[in-house]
């Protein structure tokens, strides 16, 4: 057994909430379901295998694609019965790719955290611009993109004076470095800060802006960015 899943299983106790999933020990292994279905009788939940779980995790209940698996929109109504830690590891990696390994890594005395400046300094091509963001818009972009409305990972990396995420507001899954969604969001914000705005207002009949359509002024992360930038600008220095 890998040391990460071995340590994780030891931490479960009788049950453990991991992001939006709840893991419970069962007579023959483990059961897994959406935490919102914790009290739902098993016969009212669809039994899924790892293949069905992968398909389920790719879309929200209304059918929109889930580009970020740690977003708080995991569908409900299912359960998985897992015979051993290896099957549990596979299922969790389907729901939350790399989460158990990151959870284990974050327990080390010196977790492998890569902060925004270090991360963006390595970027090239169209993402090189992300390193040019001053601390205020970079902090606002991180606070917006990683807000619990959009992501349940607990951000351990920082930029400027932005603190790490409050554990009480996030899940047990750590975020050790900016993700691809954050990198693309920072690129879009950097362009906006330079006065380059190619976005067009969304057609109201087309519905809300897609989660990662950062060109749309109606994108919820862009709207959150404006609030966070205003909030941080008004926050006195520590």
Task: Label this structure with key terms.
five-stranded mixed beta sheet; 2 domains; alpha/beta; Gyrase A, domain 2; Alpha-Beta Plaits; two-stranded parallel ribbon; globular; 8 helices; 238 residues
Rounded average pLDDT: 92
Taken from the alpha-carbon principal axes, the silhouette is globular
What is the CATH first-level class name of the largest domain?
Answer: Alpha Beta
In terms of quaternary structure, the protein is: single chain
Helix-strand pattern: HEEEEHEHHHHEEHH
**Biggest beta sheet summary:** 5 strands, mixed
Structural class: alpha/beta
Strand order of the largest sheet: 1-2-3-5-4
The number of distinct structural domains comes to 2
Which helices and strands appear, and what pairs or packs with what?
Elements: H1 3-12, E1 15-18, E2 21-26, E3 29-34, E4 46-47, H2 50-57, E5 78-82, H3 85-95, H4 99-106, H5 116-121, H6 135-145, E6 154-155, E7 174-175, H7 180-193, H8 220-234
Parallel strand pairs: 4-5, 6-7
Antiparallel strand pairs: 1-2, 2-3, 3-5
Provide an overview of this structure.
The chain is globular, with a radius of gyration of 19 Å. The protein contains eight helices and seven strands; from the N terminus they run αββββαβααααββαα. The N and C termini lie far apart (45 Å). The protein has helices at 3-12, 50-57, 85-95, 99-106, 116-121, 135-145, 180-193, 220-234; strands at 15-18, 21-26, 29-34, 46-47, 78-82, 154-155, 174-175. By secondary structure, the chain is an alpha/beta fold. 31% of the residues are buried. It has two domains: 3-106, Gyrase A, domain 2, CATH 3.30.1360.190; 116-234, Alpha-Beta Plaits.
